[in-house]
Amino acid sequence: MIPYISIKRKILIYVFSILFILSIIFFIYKYGCKLWNILLPFLIAIIISYSLNPLVKKFERKGISKSTAIIILYLFFILLIINLIIFVVPELINNTKELSETLPNIIGNYRDKFDGALSIIKSSKWPSEIKNSINAEIEKGIVLIQEYIMGILRKSLSMLINTLNILLNLFLSLIIAYYLMKDSDYFREWVLSLVPGKWRSGLSATGREINSVLANFIQGQLLTALIVGFLETIGLFIVKIKYPLILGLFGGLANIIPYFGPIIGAIPATAIALLQSPMKAVWTILVFVIVQQIDNNFISPKIIEGKLGLHPVATILAVLVGSEFFGIAGMLFAVPIAAIIRIIVIRSINAIVS
After folding, report:
1. 10 Å Cβ neighbour count for 185?
2. Helix-helix angle 89-122:261-276, to 10 degrees
3. Cα(322)–Cα(174) distance, rounded to whole angstroms?
């Protein structure tokens, strides 16, 4: 039989853990913008280091030093960035700018379609209260969708145009990532030196588990998103949908979001295709369905080897919470953060209770 004091202690640990996590979430929510500006180079550096680390290890196994391996990969990475800037970024900027300029017309076309639906509702024999309520909700929905899409496009265009700031962050991130990969052993030993000796084994095991989660998520999801985005861009180009590059890129990026991502990624392309013709919309939906089936059956099972250890319900909840408090960025990072919190809480409870 479990002693009463042990049960009481476990409850207190759960309560304090939950309060601690809620305090962190509140702090991030309150000072999110400032923290984002400070931490953005570090987040990019973490993504770069996790993306390149498997290749660095392969070079090391061939007798090449870690520093040399990183420099070789950086040279290749810089050449890739230069090619993207020369060949892809201008087209992406043109797609985004053109879409921003034509968006009012697109929304106007849909407003006309809604007006047709509203006229049918108005001429119906429904009670006036129901008619007014439906009309008000439709108008409110149109305004919200217009503001939301325009906001996203403005931010996207300003990010693309503000190349200097992006390059500065990228340059700083490359420096940070270099030291994260080169001195990874030093950082690990430094962190372990800050804690008492009896906790070091548990902390090291926790770090390895978190490292595995981040590696699986970053390496797997980024590569999957790249492949999915490429396939969707090709598919949209084949069926002759406008703005295939930006719509395909958006679809690939949205694919990182579990469960909701493929649907979110398909909506803009389908909406634009529907204005060209209903058949174009059908072909667009078919493109996204086919790519998603390829992803589910061939790409993800091969690339994403590890699991994050979250139940599907917990994954959905994490995405919804991230979306509510931090928007698109929250949806992208919610799942790995939830997985890391789970690891820390479970290991902390086991260490204290045992």
Report:
1. 9
2. 80
3. 27
- The Cα–Cα gap between 299 and 303 comes to 6
Q: Is 212 within 8 Å of 47 (Cβ atoms)?
A: no
216 CB contacts (<8 Å, ≥6 apart)?
A: 304, 305, 306, 307, 308
CA angle 265, 267, 271 (to 5 degrees): 140
For 15-73, the pLDDT digits (tens) are: 777 777 778 777 777 776 777 778 888 888 998 898 898 889 999 998 899 999 999 99
Exposure string over 146-161, b if 16+ CB within 10 A, otherwise e: beebeeebeebeeebe
The 10s digit of each residue's pLDDT in 253-264 is 888 887 788 888
**0.85 cut: is pTM over it?**
no
Contact 322, 330 (CB under 8 A): yes
**What are the tokens at 186?**
């030093």
Q: Where are the domains of the chain?
A: 199-354
Q: What are phi and psi of 258, to 5 degrees?
A: -65, 140
